[in-house]
Every structure is written in structure tokens, then in C-alpha cells.
Amino acid sequence: MTYADPGLLLPFRWNNDIKNKSAGQNLESMVYYLAENDNPNTSRQMRGLSFEKQEDASQAPTGDNHGTATKLLECGQKYNLRLRVINYSFVNTREVKVKFYYQPWTDGGANYPAANPATDGGCEEIKGKDGNPAKAIKGISGRTGNSDSGDNWDYAVLNGWTAPTNTGLGWLHAVISYDGEQLSADNDHGYVLVGSYDPQDFFGTVSAQAANVARAASVSVENYPDIAITGVTAYEMAKDDTVSQEPLTIDEKSRSKKMKIDVRVKYTGGRLNIGGEEKEINYLPLLRVGLLAGKRGVNRSLLGATEFPLIRAGEERTFSFVYDPKNCDYDNGVAVRAFSPYLFASEQRDPRSQYKVLWNSIEHNGGSGGCSAGLGALALLALLPLAWRKKR
User: Fold this and answer.
1) Are strands 6-7 and 78-87 parallel, antiparallel or unpaired?
2) Would residue 330 be called left, alpha or beta, if left means φ above 0 and alpha means ψ between -120 and 50 degrees?
3) Closest Cα to residue 151, out of 164, 134, 167, 139?
4) Domains of the chain with CATH codes
5) Tens-digit pLDDT string for the chain (392 aa)
6) 371-384: b (≥16 Cβ within 10 Å) or e
7) How far apart are CA 276 and CA 212, in angstroms?
8) Cα separation of 51 and 174, whole Å?
9) Are the C-beta atoms of 173 and 194 separated by less than 8 Å?
10) Rounded CA gap, 287 and 185, in Å?
11) Strands 14-20 and 70-74
């Protein structure tokens, strides 16, 4: 091995694909190989990026502890960015430079992350408080196979970046610049989805909001905002994990099938009395959705979870999960639920619209209960986005 290979951590760049060696052969003859993820929203999502607020060294309130691909920042705050760069080869690198770019979300646009942020006119290079890009990494040791001999990674650090001053979404890109031959440049570009919000719109912080649950009664319930699951569609998955194009009927008969489940969630804006002032809540940070299993009256377990950093009033988004009957006892019910830590159930027009029962356990006898368990555990999970191959 003659060349170094500095790169980013891109866990969704490739998928495991499965094909038969020849038609008509059984599962034992199937061959596994890597297939490129062709979903532009997920293929280069990166882990290993953290945002530390300069004023108090606190971390951004989502993703940082789990390496997930979404972040939530406070509008106008200064952050220090810290990105892990890995040397995937056994050869020491030369100097490694990293540039960061921000691509604002365009209302009504396709909003795919730019393939080349350095040349895309919609992206702007971001710099630190001193007007300079991230300091170059002098060099990264190669892998040796001996964990005691040192780390084969280092950090690109950009101090004092000012987050967007307006609420909204955007892609934050990182691009490696390396003056030398590389084994592969395919892992030199990654991105994360970033949301920016104003804490004053939600009583400052989540903890402050939690301490002030009581609201003045000047706003009627029918004018409250609302998180609603507007639809659930399931598609059967074959043994090679390709997905059928024909929807399944979701009931007790289909629960024995492995399936992809699409959950559509809509946020409807409304008004709340916050700190004695009536406010229009026209966006919502940290929309989270979970697929749950469990029995009525018993703590539920999460089969899958995902999140989105910010949703506007009137927007509807689709979140996807894999349901595998092997991971769920037959006598357990299954449900989906959407929520945000920035909006309590008591502050919503119809809290029941947050969840939908897919099927109940045989003990429930077809009843509609069994979704009362809280989803606080979602905040502690690595909420991974999923990419799908369409059936050819």
C-alpha cells in the first residue's frame, strides 16, 4: 500500500446488496456485495461532527452524543466545529485541510445537498471568527493494527462560526483538500442537515419550558398547534430486502411479514400563551418519530426511530422504518408516534393525532389502546436515517 487515504466517516455511502449467482439457486448461493447508495440526501451524510457553543461550551441539543446526521443550532450563536478526519490507509498522511460550506434550504426547491459545494453557487464557504478556514491537520498516522500504537484520526477545528440568524434549514458540507496521491477521494466530501431556531420562541430552552408547563388560558385549545400522523403505508420486503411497489393492508394478518413502513407527519401551526404573551408557533424544532412495540400497560420498546431538525407550519414529511417480525413478539402491539420535546401534548390541538396503532396484541382483542408510553428514550437513541433501493 503506497498511498495515504484521509477521509470522512460516511456510514451510508454504500449498502449491502444481495444477488444470486445464477437464477433458481437457493439462499446459500447468494452473494453479498457493496452497492452505491444513490439517494443524494443520505449517501454522504457524515458522522463525527460536533458543535460547541462558544459562550458556555454546551453542545448542540441533538445528534452530538450519537453521531447522527442532523443538528439543531441557536440562531446567531457562535459555535466551534470539530470534525473527525480518519486515515483509512496504513501510510501516514501529509498535511490535510478541510473546508466547510453552508447551503441554505430553498423554500419550494428540491433541496438536495450540492455535489460540489466549492463550485455550487448556492453554497458559501464558512470561516471562523478570525476570518480563516479550519486550521490544517499536520498529518494523520496510518493504521497499524495495534490499538496501543496511536489513533489513525485527528480533528479539523473551526472556531467561532456564527450560525444562521434566521430560523430554517440548511446543509453543512465538509470537503477534504489533500496535496498528494490518495487511495480514494470518494470519502472526501460529507454533509449534515442543520436546523436553526430561536430559543425565545419556545421559552428559551426545553428545561425552562418544562418548568413552566402552565399556560395562561387566553388561547383556546382549537387554536393550538398540532403534530399529526396523516397516514401510514406499508410495503412488503423480499428476502433480499428489495421493496414491493404494492402497498400492504396493515392488520393482524400482515404483521408476520417483513415490511417497510412509511409514516407521514404534518405540523399545523397555532398560537400559545408563552410567558404571558400570545405567540404564533409557525415552526417546530426536533420532530421525532418512533416505531414502538409492547403490551398495554407495559413499558414499550423502540423498533426504530428517526428525527428531522425543523419543520414549518403546513409542511408534511415522510419517515421510513423497517419492521421485522423477528424483533417483535407476536403478542405485542405495534404503533407509530410523532412528537417534539419543544411542544408538550397538553399544548396541542389533538394529542391523539400524534400516534397510530398499526395492530394490537392478541390480548387487546382489537381494541385501540396501548400507546400511552412516553418516548423520552428517543432522545437517547442514535436516530439513523434510512436509504432504500427500489425494486427493479
Assistant:
1) antiparallel
2) alpha
3) 139
4) 6-197 (2.60.40.10), 205-380 (2.60.40.10)
5) 589 999 999 988 887 655 544 445 555 555 556 778 888 888 899 999 999 998 887 777 664 344 456 789 999 999 999 999 999 999 999 999 999 999 999 877 778 999 999 999 899 999 988 888 899 999 999 987 554 446 899 999 999 999 999 999 999 999 999 998 999 999 999 999 999 999 888 864 344 444 444 444 568 999 999 999 999 999 999 988 889 999 999 988 898 999 999 999 999 999 988 777 888 999 999 999 999 887 655 556 888 888 899 999 999 999 999 999 988 877 788 999 999 989 988 899 999 999 999 988 644 433 333 333 333 333 333 332 332 222 22
6) bebebeebbebebb
7) 11
8) 14
9) no
10) 34
11) unpaired
Residue with C-alpha cell 467561532? 160
Here the cell at position 114 is: 450540492
CA–CA separation, 87 vs 1, rounded Å? 13
Q: 298: Cβ–Cβ under 8 A, 6 or more apart, which residues? A: none
Rounded Cα distance between 340 and 290, Å, is 11
Place of cell 490535510: 96
